[in-house]
Design goal:
The structure is a single chain. This protein is mostly beta strands. Helices cover 4% and strands 61% of the residues. The protein has one helix and nine strands, in the order βαββββββββ. It has a nine-stranded antiparallel β-sheet with strand order 1-2-3-4-5-6-7-8-9, with no helix packed on it. The longest helix is centred in the N-terminal third of the chain and has 7 residues. The chain is elongated. The mean pLDDT is 81.
């Protein structure tokens, strides 16, 4: 897959983020019964950035999980696994990520007109920001859907996401002389 950003007027963003990506995803699943499915997933992704200032990267993930649908009132899923993110070039000294990732959600339908959804996710993604090869993210969310007949509905939700970079960075702004 080739990603190219179209805004050539901003020479920084489009040049720094243009890349070629190769990704392989494989999954094995087993349905224990009508309401429960277990799975194991492997994802391998390599990013080759056009801009030499960005380190080419490798992303390797192994995740196991379950999808639950015991009845019409309750459903959800849980996936937990290990992710390894590193520069493709072992001589790059940037910090690597080798940690746990997860994704969980629960959907509760107490009536035919109301649906409540709760979710939590922890993951890591590659970064092109200064000396950070990756950043971690933790996300929590809740949503309510209230259906008013077949054509109308009301939806409200909340989510909170926290990003964490392994290396702190600061921007130094030089002030002008004189005056």
């Amino acid at each position: 897959r080739r990603l190219r950003y179209s805004d050539r007027n901003d020479g920084n963003i489009s040049v720094r983020l243009d890349r070629d990506s190769d990704e392989f995803t494989g999954e094995v699943g087993w349905r224990a019964n009508r309401g429960i499915r277990f799975f194991a997933r492997r994802i391998q992704r390599d990013d080759d950035f056009v801009f030499d200032g960005n380190p080419d990267s490798k992303d390797r993930r192994t995740v196991v999980g379950a999808e639950l649908r015991p009845n019409a009132f309750l459903s959800g899923s849980l996936a937990i696994g290990k992710a390894r993110l590193a520069p493709a070039d072992n001589t790059v000294t940037a910090k690597r990520f080798d940690g746990t990732v997860f994704d969980a959600n629960v959907v509760y339908r107490p009536t035919g007109a109301l649906r409540l959804t709760f979710g939590a996710k922890g993951d890591a993604y590659f970064s092109t920001y200064q000396d950070n090869v990756f950043y971690e993210t933790k996300n929590r969310s809740a949503a309510m859907d209230w259906f008013l007949g077949s054509r109308w509905g009301i939806q409200a939700g909340w989510s909170k996401e926290a990003l964490s970079y392994p290396e702190t960075s600061c921007l130094v702004v030089a002030s002008g002389e004189g005056g």
